[in-house]
Structures are given as structure tokens and as C-alpha cells.
Write a structure and sequence with these properties.
This protein has about 600 residues and is of the alpha+beta class. It is built from 19 helices and 22 strands. The strands form four sheets. The chain has a nine-stranded mixed β-sheet with strand order 1-6-5-4-7-3-2-8-9, covered by helices on one side. Strands 10-11-14-12-13 form a five-stranded mixed β-sheet, with helices on both faces. Strands 16-15-18-17-19 form a five-stranded mixed β-sheet, sandwiched between helices. It is elongated, with a radius of gyration of 35 Å. The termini are far apart.
């Protein structure tokens, strides 16, 4: 029996589009053909389970081999197989999906999640790398004859009988000259490991099974141990540090979704390591671009998400906009929030130990997701300079008595650098104030979010002003200096500094405070910080020069001494020494000024 015909194409000129443009990456051909072979294996398994196939299943396996001399790649399975009529029906009619028809026929007879095929186009990806494709197949049906099909990439094909004794299908690709790179063992193995690492049927290549058909995300959490989760993490990310904890996703309504998300250790710096979560559809790797499926703030997580309900484009290469995507995104957000709340309630000390690593996730989530913020307010922690942790509610109680201003606002003082801002921290603590540590890159954004969400609160960096002015209680100190002396002192410092970016003010402060301090306006500094971390619309602040306030302590003995000096040069020399000390404390004394200061100090000024 031999027959020649034309492939039925339902859309004019679609064949060259499929061959050349449908798949952006040519290596996809192997994913599609191996997925089809797995599909065929799953089908025979299904038919056997419902009694429609009573023969021996044998060991279901997909084999991939290549012959460099003959320039062929072969994908073989012992699945359901096809008759000549089925080949004409499923192969020659492009976009008629055999998997779709199979699922429809048997939808009332059990689970259909194992059937991968959907679009009916994957087979033709073979022509991206092959100048000729050959199919040899024998159906599971009793008495059926083996059939062969050949096509050289045109719309013509040849179909006839074949010699094949066993059930299943062989796809033989005769590789084109411009695609001979795929005849390398390393290349084929890397593609198979990328796309087929967790396919549900064993994939054999070079006499070795290269996949794990039963990854732990397909199992019930109750059947798994911590060791299982850690072993799987090592399988996904060899040589990486152990994760802090993980979340097992498992939902079947209103969509199907399974997976495991791991919380890695993240240092204080923003380690935006993308492509750490892999998206699968029925254990077939799709992409690691999961920004629509996973909330932005969880892109730092590692792991796997698998869903047959994720809408893919026709080449199964990327996501399409769909309401299910938003539902899945919301579900993952809720699941993560619930897990963090559970960890906090069940073992707070352990949660506090992990917070240095997970605080970044939590703060990022609170900034970017309103629903997450509502849940996270109960377990987001702040740490004071004595290393004690508080929830936001606990901290509100902690500072209420000492840090409420005359208008009833609670003022939260914070430091971004404990060592650099030590003098200011000590001044605040001496007045009975608490200071919290906010030293990550996103904390400027976090502070802004919290100010807008927590009623009657203000957040000020501890060096934003003189300690007596950080919290305006309505009580003002009297200055020892007269108004005339204050003006004189101000003029001396302005002439000494000679810098328009440093604004001098002489104010009454405690005599125990430093003779001069350097501060920066909270609003301007915060906007500048946000611009550096990509704050929307904040670029103008990052470009503006930094302006600093030099506050001279009118009640300090050294300033009184300066005011009493009659010699102008002596006044300026002392003013220079005092201002240099203040600038040095803020790391603002640099270059030649710093060198001169050191020389004067060493010289015993």
C-alpha cells in the first residue's frame, strides 16, 4: 500500500510560518517531540487503567538517540501508536490536536491531567532542524499494521506500510546542514535536561534516564519529610546554601496548581536574582519568566510552579494575559502570607532569627501589594539598636510615652548606619528615645509606605536634626548667647565653611550635646535615597546636589569660648576645627580638607 497526498492546511501559507517563525528558539523541537512521545505513553497507560487495552504495558519509556554519521535524531516511544488513518488525521491536518480529541472522548473516565498535547502544532517544529521527517508507528489496536510517513518539509507527504513489530512510534529527523549543531551529545543532553527534567515518563538518552518522573511537587505534603524538600532543592540548585523554609502549593479549585517555593537566604543588599522560579505545565518546562504568575516581590524566591491552567501562547513558549493568571498570582500571595504568619505564631524566636533574610521579602511585599500588606503588618518586625525585635503594634506601644510630639504624632527614629550615626544614636538614647535599624536598600520606600498606612506616625532618621528638635514636644531651650553673639558666631562659621550647600544655624541645645552637628533634611535625603533605588518619579532628587545643615550649639562651652574671642583669625581657626569635626563625623570631610585636618590634629592644634 502506498499513497501520496497533500497535507491539509486550514490557513493559507501557515506551513512555512510554523516551520520558521512559530518557535523563536529552534531547540524547542526536542521539547515538542519528546512531549508528544510522553503523551502517547500516558494515553496507553490511561486506556489500560480503564480496561480498553488489555495487553502488556511493559516499561513505558521514551528513548532519544542520534547518529552523527547518518545525521539523524530519533525519538521513540512504546505508547499508544497510530494507524495509517490516524497519521493522516492527526499529522496531516495541522492544528487538529489528537490530545484534545482524546481528552474529550475519555473526559468522564478519570483524570486527564497527564495529556500534554494541546495545540496539535508541536510535531511540525521538527522541520525547523530537519530537511526530512519520518514516522514509523504501530497502533496498540489488535491486528493493526505498522505505517510509515515521510515529508521533506513541503506540503507533500508519502504514507505507506512499515515493518515494526512492537507498539509505539519512532520519529526520525534527518537533520539539515544548518542545524547539525543538534547532532552533538552535549547539546541534546542539555536540551533534554532543560525541558524534560521532570517529565512524567522516563526519558532515556545514552542508555541513561535523564529525568525525575516523580518530582516532589506531584506528591502530597503529608508524604514528604524536610529531608525530601532539601534534597529536591539541591537537585534544582546544586551547591547553593540551604533554604530557610519552603511552601508547598497544592490547589485544584478554581484552577489547578502545584509547586514548591523556597525562601533562600538573602543578604542585606538587594539580590534581585531573576530566573529562579521555573514554570511547568504538566511537568513540561515552559519558562523561567514568571513575572505575571508570581508577584513581583516574590521573584526573589526559588522553586517550581506547575499548572495545566496557565494560558500559553500557541507555541507554549510564554504566557498570555488571562484571568487565571491574576487568580494564581493572588493565591500565591495569600499562601505566602499565611505561611509567614504561621511561622511567626508557632515559633517567634526562630522567625526572628530568620528575619534578617526574610525581612526583604516582607517589606518589598508590603510596599508593592496592598493585600499582602494587610496580612504582613502582624508579622513584619523592626529591630532596635539594642537588637530587640518588635512587631509594628508592639513598637507603637514602646515609643508612645517618650516619642509622641505636641501634635500627638508618634515619631519613629531610625538609623541607616549604626556606626556612622553612633553619636546621634547615643544622644537619642540619652533622652530615653528608641532607635530602630533600617539599613536595607528598600527601607526608604518601606518608610514612605508605613507613614501612609500607620495613622499619626512620622519616621525620622536619627541624624535628620538636633536631638532636641527631632521630636517637637513644644518645649524650647534658652540660649546662653545673646542674639548679637549668635549672629556673630553664624557669620564666622559661614565664612569659614564658604559652602552654599552647607546651611549654618545657631540654636539652643543641651550643653551636653556636641558643639556642632551636621544634619540633612529628612524629606530631601529620603527622596534622594529613593531615587537611587528606582523610586518612580524621584530621579530629579537624585540629580540635585546634597544640602546639609550645620547646627551650632549655642549652649556649648566651646561655642561660648569662640564668641568671646577677640581675634578674628583665632575665631576662624576654632570654627574650622569644630566644623571639621562635625563634617568628619558624617564622612563629609574629604580630599585636601581631610589631609589638612589630620596635619593640624597631629600637630597638636
Amino acid at each position: 500500500m502506498k499513497e501520496t497526498g497533500n497535507i491539509s492546511i486550514h490557513t493559507e501559507n501557515i506551513f512555512p510560518i510554523i516551520k520558521k517563525f512559530l518557535y523563536s528558539d529552534h531547540e524547542i523541537f526536542l521539547r515538542e517531540l519528546v512531549s508528544n512521545a510522553v503523551d502517547a505513553s500516558q494515553k496507553i497507560k490511561r486506556l489500560s487503567s480503564i480496561g480498553e487495552f488489555n495487553g502488556e504495558l511493559g516499561e513505558l519509556k521514551v528513548k532519544v538517540s542520534f547518529d552523527k554519521d547518518k545525521k539523524t535524531i530519533t525519538i521513540s516511544d512504546n505508547g499508544i501508536g497510530m494507524t495509517a488513518e490516524e497519521i493522516k488525521k492527526y499529522i496531516n491536518q495541522i492544528a487538529f490536536s489528537g490530545a484534545t480529541e482524546f481528552v474529550e472522548k475519555y473526559k468522564d473516565q478519570g483524570d486527564d491531567k497527564g495529556i500534554i498535547g494541546h495545540f496539535g502544532l508541536g510535531f511540525y517544529s521538527a522541520f525547523m532542524v530537519a530537511k526530512e521527517v519520518e514516522i514509523i508507528s504501530k497502533s496498540y489496536q489488535e491486528g493493526s499494521e505498522a505505517a510509515s510517513w515521510k515529508c521533506d518539509g513541503s506540503t507533500e507527504y508519502t504514507i505507506g506500510s512499515a515493518k515494526k513489530k512492537t507498539r509505539g512510534t519512532d520519529i526520525i529527523l534527518h537533520i539539515a546542514e544548518d542545524s547539525e549543531e543538534f547532532l552533538e551529545e552535549f547539546k541534546l543532553k542539555s536540551i533534554l535536561e532543560k525541558y524534560g527534567k521532570f517529565l512524567p515518563i522516563e526519558i532515556e538518552f545514552g542508555d541513561k534516564v535523564i529525568n525525575n518522573p516523580n518530582p516532589i511537587w506531584t506528591k502530597s505534603p503529608s508524604d514528604l519529610t524536610d529531608e525530601d524538600y532539601l534534597k529536591f532543592y539541591e537537585e534544582l540548585y546544586p551547591f547553593q546554601e540551604k533554604p530557610l523554609f519552603w511552601i508547598h502549593l497544592n490547589v485544584d479549585y478554581p484552577f489547578n496548581l502545584t509547586g514548591i517555593l523556597y525562601f533562600p537566604k538573602v543578604k542585606n543588599e538587594m539580590q534581585l536574582q531573576r530566573e529562579k522560579i521555573s514554570l511547568y505545565s504538566r511537568q513540561v518546562f515552559i519558562t523561567d519568566e514568571v513575572k505575571d504568575i508570581v508577584p513581583e516581590f516574590l521573584m526573589l524566591l526559588h522553586g517550581v510552579i506547575d499548572s495545566p491552567d496557565i494560558p500559553l501562547n500557541v507555541s507554549r513558549s510564554f504566557l498570555q494575559a488571562d484571568s487565571n493568571v491574576k487568580k494564581i498570582n493572588s493565591y500565591i500571595t495569600k499562601k505566602v502570607a499565611d505561611k509567614l504568619a504561621e511561622l511567626f505564631k508557632s515559633d517567634r524566636p526562630a522567625f526572628e532569627e530568620k528575619f534578617a533574610n526574610i525581612g526583604l521579602f516582607i517589606k518589598y511585599g508590603m510596599i508593592s501589594d496592598e493585600k499582602f500588606l494587610e496580612k504582613a503588618k502582624d508579622f513584619c518586625l523592626v529591630q532596635d539598636t539594642n537588637n530587640k525585635y518588635f512587631t509594628l503594634d508592639e513598637y507603637s506601644e514602646e515609643v508612645q510615652a517618650a516619642q509622641t510630639d505636641k501634635d500627638g504624632n508618634k515619631v519613629y527614629l531610625y538609623t541607616t548606619d549604626v556606626e556612622q550615626q553612633d553619636a546621634f544614636i547615643q544622644s537619642a538614647q540619652n533622652k530615653g528615645y528608641s532607635v530602630i535599624k533600617l539599613d536595607t536598600l528598600i527601607d526608604s520606600h518601606f518608610i514612605n509606605t508605613m507613614e501612609s498606612k500607620l495613622e499619626k506616625t512620622q519616621w525620622k532618621r536619627v541624624d535628620a536634626d538636633a536631638v532636641d528638635k527631632l521630636i517637637d514636644t513644644g518645649i524650647t531651650l534658652e540660649a546662653i548667647l545673646s542674639d548679637a553673639q549668635k549672629e556673630s558666631v553664624k557669620k564666622v562659621f559661614e565664612e569659614t565653611l564658604n559652602d552654599k550647600q552647607k546651611v549654618v544655624a545657631v540654636e539652643a541645645m543641651s550643653p551636653d550635646e556636641l558643639p556642632a552637628i551636621v544634619t540633612q533634611n529628612e524629606f530631601m535625603r529620603r527622596m534622594s535615597d529613593m531615587s537611587k533605588t528606582g523610586g518612580g518619579g524621584m530621579g530629579m532628587f537624585g540629580a540635585m546636589p546634597n544640602t546639609y545643615n550645620i547646627t551650632i550649639n549655642a549652649n556649648h562651652p566651646l561655642i561660648s569660648k569662640l564668641a568671646d574671642l577677640k581675634d578674628e583669625s583665632e575665631q576662624k581657626a576654632l570654627a574650622k576645627q569644630i566644623s571639621d569635626l562635625a563634617l568628619l563625623s558624617q564622612n563629609l570631610l574629604t580630599g585636601a580638607d581631610l589631609t589638612a585636618f589630620i596635619k593640624r590634629t597631629v600637630g597638636g592644634f
